[in-house]
Known about the structure:
442 residues, alpha+beta, D-Maltodextrin-Binding Protein, domain 2
Amino acid sequence: MKKSIALAGLLATSALALTGCSGTGGGTGGAPAAAPGDDEKVTVTVWSAFSDRELAALDGILATFHEQHPNITIKNVGSQTDDKITQAIRGGKSPDVAISFSSNAVGQFCSSGTFQDLTDYIDRDKVDLTKIPQATLDYTQYDGVRCTMPLLADVYGLYYNKKMFADAGITAPPKTMTEFTEDIKKLTQFNADGSIKVAGYVPTPGYYANAIEMLAPQWGATWQTKDGQSNLAADPAWTEMFEWQKEITDFYGLDNITRFTAEAGQQYSAEQDFQTGRIAMAFDGEYRTAFIKDGAPDLDYATAPMPVADDHPELYGTGYTTGTVIGMPKGAQNAGAAWEVIKYLTTDTDALVTLANALGNVPTSTDALKSPDLELPEQFQTFLDMFDSGKVQTNPATKNGNAYTKIAQDFETAFVGGSKTDLAAGLKDVDQQINDANALGQ
């Protein structure tokens, strides 16, 4: 499932589209709707951004649901973005169930009432939320309103080329940033003219999965103070992270790494840089295993958690997680049946395992994580272990989506690229911009 990538662009669009949605702050406006009786025939419309193979996989799962609930027919509609869902709600033509790849938009979904609060349904049916990791529970609710449930997750870690490791005399993946830096330099190969032939690792913000929120957990960086104010200037982890990225950029030379990244292969093609051997180590999500299987089946590679800051070895095993979310939009015509579909897709172990196998994503319940029916490549185990470790992290939800991460990454790009040089002052300015943006979103 190709989601949670290029968040700075995609989710900024979603954030703008969702701003101004009317609503009552969530909730179903009373007692949760009952499931339809066995003799009551209803049709539930499900919208998602899935297409092609992924939409067909969801079709198969929903067909199984229909076999179990023959009175509920599912109309599964793909290629529906958050913007389209929002427009349908505004026009009074809401789908019954909506699936979004934009977990950063959950703060808006919940606070605006765009998606209904599912808490009463969860309580009534005694859904055991303890079977879902805490970070996943965090990104599917906002300010006490649980307007979405998780439907598979992404977890990010380190991919490394085993042959290149062996040729460089490296016997194990790095665990600290110092080890990582040493390995990057050992693995990098330059052409006779000084240009980069093989990069040990590319630190450039925005290169493939190098989004700021995805890398921040490796330094233990915190986004907010307890009272919700931006915390980048006060938390030394951010300074360490930015300085490390600048150090690796300087090792290559800015012009050199800029030319190298300008020639990067398309992310979701067989020409992606790790798959073609242009880079020895990559930061990526679990879904990359499926792309490697299809586009580079002979690649000899392994996975591991991403290295962590030297002064926080206890963090090793952490990583960023996000994922697909599913909810009931305001105006759903068949709320009782819609909830049955949502509950099935997010809590039924067989459904989660089948969908995880088909899409190559991490199932979002502890029961599914441990299922013997998971059929995923050996390199996938790293991501299952990380997700089940209790160490994975996510970024906080806000009412204005990912505006704050874009502000931070814009400065990160400028600092790493050398156009901004005063890191301390820059981070204070980022805090001010983020606090101002959050205030506008109130």
